[in-house]
């Protein structure tokens, strides 16, 4: 397995790494097979058209090279976008942005998409529940189920800092 030069560059110098104080939305996603866990924090403001946009975005990731590169990439792709546009960012967009991923690591791009989705879902749940569709509810329930399975599987060895990432 080998990574593209761009994946390695992003991994070595990720953009938007860290936490936002008092975020408007927090999203977490993880994979029970590989153990990768991601958190994305968003700040939302209004643009000139009075649409909600992601004015700031940060991430924390406990995972591999591909997970960190995917997390950084999705924050770059989503920053400045409306929430509606950000929800349309998919794994193909992330994979293209980072210059490709080995097939065994494609799931990392999906985790970043799920974490962004969860951050936007969290924002809507606090500010405008009418924007949450049935499909969004179903996706949210699936992601939460995965999160619970990760907590169960890794509870004995996950240290307090990692638990904070998982538990919020």
Oligomer: single chain
Order of helices and strands: HEEEHHHHHH
Largest sheet: 3 strands, antiparallel
Strand order of the largest sheet: 1-2-3
Distance between the termini: 33 Å
pLDDT under 50 segments (min length 5)?
A: 157-164
Give the strand tally.
3
Q: How many separate domains?
A: 1
CATH topology: Sufe protein. Chain: A
Q: Radius of gyration, rounded?
A: 15 Å
Structural class label: alpha+beta
Estimate what percentage of residues fall within beta strands: 15-25%
* Proper CATH architecture: Alpha-Beta Complex
Number of helical segments with 4 or more residues = 7
The global form is globular
Which features does this protein show?
single chain, 3 strands, alpha+beta, 16% strand, 168 residues, Sufe protein. Chain: A
In short:
The protein has 168 residues and is an alpha+beta fold.
How would you describe the overall organization of this protein?
With 168 residues, the chain is an alpha+beta fold. The chain has one domain: Sufe protein. Chain: A. Helices cover 50% and strands 16% of the residues. The chain contains seven helices and three strands. A three-stranded antiparallel beta sheet has the order 1-2-3, sandwiched between helices. A hairpin with a 5-residue loop joins strand 2 and strand 3. Helix 2 crosses helix 4, helix 2 crosses helix 5 and helix 4 packs across helix 5. The relative contact order is 0.19. About 5% of the residues have low confidence.
